[in-house]
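Go through this fold for my students:
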Amino acid sequence: MNVWTADAETVAASYHRIEARHPRRFLLGVGIGHREVHAEHTCPYDTLVSCLDRLGSAGVPADRIVVAALGPRVLRLAGARTAGVIPGMVTPEHTRRARSILGPGKLLLPGHFALVEPDVNRARAAARNRAGCAQLRERPPASRLH
């Protein structure tokens, strides 16, 4: 669920319908997305915390939620309050660092991609175009944990 566009209570009701039909087979992914795409100008971290609070109040168990976390602050939040993280388009180095922040016992479900192309510049251009994200063309990778 995108925290900017989806209502936590509505999503929680959908979660409960799915859980009733397919017990323990569904994880709810929660993510901030790209704030610049949305009109909201509130703090993304606070918005995510509020969303997790609302999902919890609506009865969604913490161990059935994963967060699309990239940076260390959100990784720590997810490690403390959810089953784990599902970072997308990350490097193996990001995954190693994410594991060290999360600690053992939490889900770490990274999205790794590979492109076979011997020319590094052509590979990067192809990957950026394939991803279809203007942000990837103009900004450094969000997956850096600096």
User: Anything to note?
Assistant: Residues 29 and 64 are 9 Å apart (CA to CA).
